[in-house]
Amino acid sequence: MRFTLNGAAAEVSAYPMKRLLDVLREECALPGTKEGCGEGECGACTVLIDGEPVVSCLVPFAQVEGAEVTTIEGLGGDHPLQHAFMREVGAQCGICTPGMIMAALSIGPTTSLPRVREALAGNLCRCTGYEAIYRAIGNQQPSVGSRGSRENLLGRSEG
Amino acid sequence: MSAVGTSVARKEGLDKATGAARYVDDLVFPGMIYGRTIRSTIASGRIVSVTPAFDPAGFTVVDHRAIRGENCIALIEHDQPCLAVDRVRHVAEPILLLAHEDRERLLAAKVDIAYERADPLFDPEQSSQTFKQILIEKGNLERGFAKADVVVEGTYATGHQEHIYIETNGVVAVPEPNGLALYGSLQCPFYVLKALKVLLGDAAPGVRVVQAETGGGFGGKEEYPSMIAAHACLLALKSGRPVKIIYDRVEDMLATTKRHPSIVRHRTGLTRDGKLVAMDVDVLLDGGAYCTLSPVVLSRGVIHAAGPYRCANTRIAGRAVMTNTPPNGAFRGFGAPQTQFAMEVHMERIAETLGLDPVRLRLKNALRPGDTTATGQKLGEDCSAAAVLREAVRKSGFQRKRAKYGASKRPTRGIGLALFYHGAGFTGGGEVALASRAAIETAVDGVRILVANTEIGQGTRTMLAQIVADTLGIPYEQVAVAQPDTSVVPDSGPTVASRTCMVVGGLLERCAFAMRMKLGDASPTEHFARHGTLRIEEQYEAPSGRQWNDVTYRGDAYATFAYGCDVAEVELDPVTHEARVLKFTAVQEFGRPVHPALARGQIEGGSAQGLGWALLEHVVMRDGAMANAQLTNYIIPTTLDTPPMDVVMLENPYAGGPFGAKGLGELPIDGPAPAIVNAIRHAGIDVRAIPATPELLFGCARLDADASQGAA
Question: Does residue A104 sit at the B interface (CB-CB below 8 Å)?
Fold first, then answer.
């Protein structure tokens, strides 16, 4: 099956009904995406498909044919949101963090707390009480982009 | 250049934000196969037969006969089998282990088990089997009641709570030439090691336990990992291959430990002006089917049962009993949230009965330096009960809002508070018995910390490195922390009981002082270049003058206490009966924060977990099994359930802790439930149990706004 994975063309052979989560972790050697509940309730396995956040435990692999899939590894290690999560201790145990960051990426630049709350309502964190996560999202470096294109949010250069 | 007191970059912070951190399910070993546990489906009875009903090709199968040592999960008692022999005492008790390289075939394998059923016991009040009984007595209860103008009685109950660490329990057991390496998501490597040695006997003399990055614990990975580790090791020994067992969410919720449900009865005598003169408290904890840690959960529970209050005549009687439900165990707070929930809701009812302001009632009785607790512990200047109460009242605008909401004839909003404390470190003589050891050693680029204490999200690596860096006078970046591996690190005790920063941090401070003396003018790096590794190890020594009697339960129960006062503002939906928390204020004193951002995170996270316990988290038990063992219908707080939080960290440096620090991890979960229930009470509903779900609130009596006094 062909699709785009973290910006590069990928061809992966796996059972079409296998969970995207497992394909990413096992066939693609990208274990940054985590399983928390296996039933789409906790959001730990959130990835972006064509820019939209989805829970990869509920997506059969067949569905991503031709799509663009972005995992936490696709951000590299230097994204402003990743630094903000570290600085503000938005991650404690860290197991929800990759999914939380992927969900947060799709919010767009906003200082509206109700909007952030709503966008993250499908991502459970048991450690932080969410306050430090809001601080991380609210205190990204200005380079995150005031114009708010998705490319910008994904940390790619504008142009 | 000091690191302590500043929010330095966490050691593993970026790895967690980039997905590079490796948790146990991310570990892969050559030839690895997967393990599965076949469990009982009844709550009590005899096993008549166990019949595998699958093609055995490629399967490894293990039952109790494969155990070379003792068939138990060794903890306080040796009562819990690793694999059932001929009887089961709860649903989800392990009976048979399977392993296979193909997970689909493993999951499809059927095993027929025939039982001869017995009558299960689910009501702790009917249980005649007691795991532990404790009596605390101070003064003379009868004489106390003789002085009382008013006696207030009440019964309060709390339910199970699931930990819901977002990473479920999991391990990998890997055969090695001299035994086994067990990698796991766990809090206490040496607890697992001890249990494995008892279980495996001479089968694996060189067994070692290594902590993988751990996705949350909250007590749920204190004792349970010994069980799953035991299972993986048995399968690895039999198959000769690495065996991974990762529970799915349903199995984790069905089979692993939960917070002990409680029933607490209070009978309290007061003078008319609100002075406590007699407190009679009865605590009952439902331990579940095996002992696990129930005796020590009860111990912390009863010691905290009188709250942070002064009373000359106190009797606290506690029991932890057996029922045919999966064993309950450690959960952040360890009995203290249950008993302080009862105490603080009871205080609110006392204030109502006497017609006293709830803040004044608490201020009148709050422990001050020089006062003694129920066990007779005399408190020093590190007692901050009155200070946290005053600051919480001021910060939250409590009195103004109390008057405003209270003026309504049929209020929908209420505000309530709770005053609480939490002992840091092991109870009583526990730290002396542990005799923890910690070490540091010089290395090519600085020093390395060697402890068994685990980073489970709370910041262990970072805090300990801050303490060592400042004591040695070197940059924080030059302090590394070894991965906890029982073959490498000394046993610095378990990562529990709010002890890591205060007790283990204190040990490391001593190590660093000793190293600094030996280094002279040289830096660790220079010394290493000239002389090789310099290793310093220190062992725990009790603070001088501390006394404890484990028979009479008299003396200094803890080295020190941390203090907190929480204020909750609640809105009730008159149609759905849902209680929502609008605003939460937490004022907490825990000596001095070593890392302010991490400390704030403990308070915010613990408060959210307490909010869940108070309102949302309802473990529904049906025939001894959790009926809602899924995140779909066991609800923990989401972003939409968690209110804005105002956190104040009051400083009162504690001379006995490193850089003035006390323990913090558990304190924040003691206050939210009673503060929220007291706010619901202020809005007119007489609720004395949690979780206060809409269904429960619907059935509670409405307090008449004009005549709420005297409710009994």
Answer: no
